[in-house]
Prior knowledge:
Helix content is 31%, strand content 16%. By secondary structure, it is α+β, with helices and mostly antiparallel strands. The strands form three sheets. It has a 15-stranded antiparallel β-sheet that branches. Strands 14-15-16 form a three-stranded mixed β-sheet. Strands 5-6 form a two-stranded antiparallel ribbon. A hairpin with a 2-residue loop joins strand 8 and strand 9 (289-293).
Amino acid sequence: MRALVVGLFASAFAGCGGSFQPGARAAADPNEVGFVASDGWAFPAGSIQPTLATGGIVTTTDRVATETGTEILRRGGNAVDAAVATHFALAVVNPEAGNIGGGGFMVVRRANGETASLDFREKAPGAATRDMYLDERGEVTDASRSGHLAAGVPGSVAGMWEAHQRFGSLPWAELVQPAINLALGMVVHDRLAGSLRSYAERLERNPAAAAVLLPGGTPPPVGDRLVQADLAETFRRIAENGKDGFYGGQTALLVEEEMRRGGGLITANDLASYEAVWRDPIVFSYRGHTIISMPPPSSGGATLAEILNILEGYDLASLSHHSADHVHLWTEAVKRAYVDRNAYLADPDFAELPTERMISDDYAAERRSDIHPDRTTPSDSVLPGLTPVPAVAMATPEPEHTTHYSIIDADGNAVAVTTTLNSLYGNVVMVEDAGFLLNNEMDDFTAKVGEPNQFGLVQGEANTIEPGKRMLSAMTPTIVLDPNGSVLLVTGTPGGSTIITSVAQVISNVIDFGMGVANATAAPRLHHQHLPDVLRYEENGLPVDVVAALEALGHEVDQRSGFQGDLQTIQVLPGTTTAGVADPRRGGASFGVTPVRQVVQ
């Protein structure tokens, strides 16, 4: 997946998938600060290049969605306008994670300095109960992961509506129209075709999903025209009636009927009462930079703050990137942050949370005080730092889902959005006659204290199921300001429990090690989440001598198959130029209004 120079296209506005012509590979920037990895690493330093542009830039995991958002910027829309159009386009072209049947989080930093964070996370239905996923023996079932009972009340449409009401400038219907056009017929591209092939067996289990996404009983090949007529009608109702076009009327009735057919819990009343909520963002400093991220019920901002605040006590710049010393300190910081994350964080409307304490410099100093430079601290000795909690079970490896997009407009307004159905294709239930998939976010609750969820996260009492409660999340949309208070980075990623560690690493790569956005994205990634007590790294991501040195310090180190995350990051360069990188791990595109250099991964 190498960087390719591409031209712009406007497929969403033409109502078709479009195409692009690859050109020559962009030359490496000789001034780009590099990183160390083994010889077999897939993305060596200098192997990928950012899109450079003026006038605004959009970066997503899907080139059609990226072009949709970029076209809104060309029409004079601001970053929030572009976010709305991009979000809805992703629901059509990237149904594995883009959605109107799921939810997410948005972080905004306006050019005038105003910051905001929007919680459009799903909520437990009114009929949900604490032990709804336990069998007669008290064991956790898989009903939180697949099928109708796994769905929480969706938040995406309410989130986009609320963001537009506060910050939007172009007419709402104009921002929804590209999704309508795409749903009426889009040309299937590589990403979608590959995803549908991989998940065809699961999609076949739901007749409505199979009829739409596997027309004729098979995944559509690249170049076929995929029509999602029912989804187009749902978007028409949203375009005409705003939030009420989804949470009331025909769409709400269709969701309620689907729940009755499959034994789910969401009712028309649950939908009518759903609200997206503006919350104060998590704001903290790191080496003179200001980090703006998402507060609970996202665990992202608080955990990110604890990781970086602990690391701020070390002169990382004096260490070699991914040397054993660097990786050791990083791992010890992450262990401590994740045990606190799992013990304390939840929906702040249902529990008193120690968030301010977690993100404080004083608490970071406490957590740092028992890190030993010459040996690891076993996870069973790393306990939550604030109050005792019950012992927890071992966790299992995490899958990777969700999607993220980053946007900056010509005026410097910045938006970071992470959104999800949870698992790929959510609960694999499509609402019949409405054309969209539902989420399986109920699995992000603590179904049983001490038992891991599908991401291997062992969570606490505060995150147990209650009606109307929002489940804890790891999504971490983040904006970084430079020491002068100007936007430096806009970033975020999918990846389940790896989201927070991936975001922390790209920030540290830029601030601590001086990398540009391309190498900061290309650098190999690490992950630890307290339990299991294993440091995982991407295939060929660490040299063998570094692995041996870490093992000598007592770390259990494991090379994972494949990659971690799908970061979509924008860096503001001196002057008026912005640089965007769509992570080469999954592909995607970063397009600018006035491109200086245009690439697609």
